[in-house]
TrEMBL record:
GO terms for biological process: GMP salvage; guanine salvage; hypoxanthine metabolic process; IMP salvage; purine ribonucleoside salvage. GO terms for cellular component: cytosol. GO terms for molecular function: guanine phosphoribosyltransferase activity; hypoxanthine phosphoribosyltransferase activity; magnesium ion binding; nucleotide binding. CDD domains: PRTases_typeI. Its EC number is 2.4.2.8. Purine salvage pathway enzyme that catalyzes the transfer of the ribosyl-5-phosphate group from 5-phospho-alpha-D-ribose 1-diphosphate (PRPP) to the N9 position of the 6-oxopurines hypoxanthine and guanine to form the corresponding ribonucleotides IMP (inosine 5'-monophosphate) and GMP (guanosine 5'-monophosphate), with the release of PPi. Belongs to the purine/pyrimidine phosphoribosyltransferase family. It is found in: Cytoplasm. Pathway: Purine metabolism; GMP biosynthesis via salvage pathway; GMP from guanine: step 1/1; Purine metabolism; IMP biosynthesis via salvage pathway; IMP from hypoxanthine: step 1/1. The keyword Kinase does not apply. This is Hypoxanthine phosphoribosyltransferase.
Length: 183
């Protein structure tokens, strides 16, 4: 990853820290859902949360069901447009199910709030969110993830699923992208 490292101003969270955060969240989910009648449905927000969900699932020691939803509020830019668009919807009936949204990052909160509202309209039993990264300084909408891996500063982050223009998702760490890359 030497080639891509030149675009990174600072590595904020290395791979070991991401794995530790994933293990901690997995144990919390396991404890919270162990004695439920049904296994929880993990809904991964594509594309960014895919590496996090893959890492997280390895450490959850109860049955879970998975599905995917592709939503966007960035539309190719570096900040949320405020308009949340569902590009690919989940494929299963989730009425009456406990749903856990798996997010790569909660920053403005717009996407998470829209997803929670959308899933509640489908009459789920409960909806919570596990987010690898939380950027509370960027919050515009009053919403919080229930399970948070890492709290980050309000900087433009890439790596481990987080992208700029579909690039940098494959980095095994999370770092601050150099401003000259996206300015």
């Amino acid at each position: 990853m030497e080639n891509l490292l030149k675009d990174i101003e600072e590595v904020l969270f290395n791979h070991e820290e991401i794995v530790a955060a994933s293990k901690r969240i997995a144990k919390q989910i396991e404890e919270d859902y162990r004695n439920r009648d049904q296994e929880p449905v993990l809904i991964c927000t594509l594309k960014g949360a895919l590496p996090f969900m893959a890492e997280l699932m390895k450490y959850i020691d109860i049955h879970v069901v998975t599905d995917f939803i592709d939503v966007s509020s960035y539309h190719g830019g570096t900040s949320s447009t405020g308009t949340v668009k569902i590009k690919k919807d989940i494929g299963m009936d989730i009425e009456g199910r406990d749903v856990i949204i798996i997010e790569d990052i909660v920053d403005t909160g717009r996407t998470l709030k829209a997803l929670i509202n959308n899933l509640n309209e489908r009459k789920v039993a409960s909806v919570t969110c596990a987010s690898l990264v939380d950027k509370p300084e960027a919050r515009i909408v009053d919403v919080e993830a229930d399970y948070i891996g890492i709290v980050a500063p309000n900087a433009f982050l890439v790596g481990f699923g987080l992208d700029y223009d579909e690039k940098y998702r494959n980095l095994p760490y999370i770092g601050v992208l150099k401003k000259e890359i996206y300015s």
